[in-house]
Amino acid sequence: MPIDAAQAVAAEPRRSELTWDHKDVILYHLGIGAGTPATGPDELRYTLETRLHVLPSFATVAGGGRAVSGGLATPGIDVDLAAVLHGGQTVELHRPLPARGTATQTSRVAAVHDKGKAAVIVHRSDVEDAEGPLWTSQSEIFVRGEGGFGGERGSATRLDAPEAAPTWTVDRPIREDQALLYRLSGDWNPLHADPEFAKRAGFDRPILHGLCSYGITLKAVVDTALGGDVARVRAYTTRFAGVAFPGETLRVRMWRDTPAPGRVQVTVTAVERDDAPVLADTVVTHT
Ligand SMILES: CCCCCCC[C@@H](O)CC(=O)SCCNC(=O)CCNC(=O)[C@H](O)C(C)(C)COP(=O)(O)OP(=O)(O)OC[C@H]1O[C@@H](n2cnc3c(N)ncnc32)[C@H](O)[C@@H]1OP(=O)(O)O
Description:
Layout: H1 5-10, E1 14-20, H2 22-31, H3 41-47, H4 66-72, E2 84-93, E3 101-114, E4 118-129, E5 132-144, E6 168-173, H5 178-182, H6 195-200, H7 210-225, E7 233-240, E8 249-256, E9 263-270, E10 276-286
Antiparallel strand pairs: 1-3, 2-5, 2-7, 3-4, 4-5, 6-8, 7-10, 8-9, 9-10
The structure holds 3R-hydroxydecanoyl-coenzyme A (HDC).
3R-hydroxydecanoyl-coenzyme A binds at residues 67-68, 71, 84-88, 115, 118, 120, 123, 139-142, 153, 156, 187, 189, 191, 207, 209-210, 239-243.
């Protein structure tokens, strides 16, 4: 049986060691579009080792993407990768991320929801180093065709886009080779690179990694709404509402102090496809 929810949730948490250094951080930043203009002072914070600030979404790839592969390598879960889409992602920061580190990750399947036509696997990781907790990450993995196993449906948090005009709107072009560059940070899923595999998954061409859009968007928020200060981010949550393709332009709309003070609510759409939703229910919590 492809999904045995009870077995997945009861499985022992998996522990793994994560290590990273400035090279991994810079590669990740390039993979989410940093470095344009190449020598602009704001971009050098993301790309020059002597000035490096770590974007908190780096947590999703630290250690070479084990969070991604580990999410599906759990007893009780045996699914076709072509049926898998990233559904949602949250990262909660306990401290700013260092540019190099060694940490222990403890991961488990927190829940498996039965959506009828799909299963949603909720995968949680807690990461700490010698100085204490660093971050907590939660991924929702949407597996098409794997529902109907008789599990709980689970609840969904939905945020209406505010009626007021956005405080800021910025456009972020996705390079044609963005997914090819991003995958070097550890998510080698062929869905993002191999046209034949993408067709088998139901797409005309390879789609962008959800976590690449996630990183592009957080960088846009930090650079626009948080004065470029990565250390102000406390938490970042999103739902992947629709696909994005390399070569498109992401329009990032941001509302200050929405839905509460100290939060920026964000929507992301694909400009070339009539503002089709890409990220929804997206909030950056900050100091
Ligand atoms: C540990 C980390 C491991 C990560 C593994 C992933 C590896 C990566 O390489 C893979 C990727 O990056 S894939 C790219 C990024 N993701 C996407 O592009 C998906 C975009 N979203 C969609 O296509 C649709 O929203 C879609 C298809 C997701 C849903 O659309 P519909 O089928 O139309 O669903 P709908 O009828 O609206 O709702 C049915 C029930 O499902 C819930 N739901 C909807 N969208 C969800 C989402 N994004 N995440 C989680 N749950 C979601 C709905 O709430 C509904 O349930 P309920 O009726 O109980 O409310």
